[in-house]
Amino acid sequence: MKIALPLANGKLAMHFGHCEQFALVDVDPAAKKILLREDVFAPPHEPGLLPRWLAERGAKLIIAGGMGQRAQGLFAEQGIEVVIGAPAESPEVLVAAYLDGTLQSGDNLCDH
Fold this sequence. Notes:
alpha/beta
């Protein structure tokens, strides 16, 4: 399973659509282990592009601080689950918490 997280300064970016990089983290959900992390530069911001772009890279889950309703719908169309309201932590901390079932999600930190 591949999990994507938008990055800002090495931690989760609070505004999904305008991040510069994504951490793509391969995990083994059964073993609850991180297998590989790859940081990739995001394409230029263009409405509707990121869901398709991340699906092409194999993402099945997005962990985000905030995301607009339209983007959430576009990810659902790509078969990608979205978790919003996550805190600004490192990808490893967030993914480990997700795998353990302890990831604290909160309010959608995006206002559109």
